[in-house]
Design goal:
By secondary structure, this protein is mainly α. The protein is built from 2 helices and no strands. Helix 1 (8-42) runs antiparallel to helix 2 (47-67).
């Protein structure tokens, strides 16, 4: 009888990569959206880029805290 081999290592890496990409896109989208709303509300034009940069920074921080190794 043959044993089934599982390909968990490539699948696990792909899942982590997709999760990291999701964090980065969600951070840009959420804080960029808040910046866009702030721009519309206060009649400004600088909050959208500030929100997107802030969202990217927060997302990178979350990814490092969650997936960074402490070794």
């Amino acid at each position: 009888m043959k044993q089934k081999t599982t390909a968990s290592a490539p699948t696990e890496g792909r899942d982590q990569g997709m999760a990291i990409l999701s964090y980065l896109l969600a951070g840009i989208g959420l804080y960029g959206g808040l910046g866009w709303l702030g721009d519309r509300f206060w009649q400004t034009s600088f909050l959208l880029p500030v929100g997107m940069i802030l969202g990217m920074g927060i997302s990178i921080y979350v990814v490092i805290k969650r997936y960074g190794s402490a070794a």
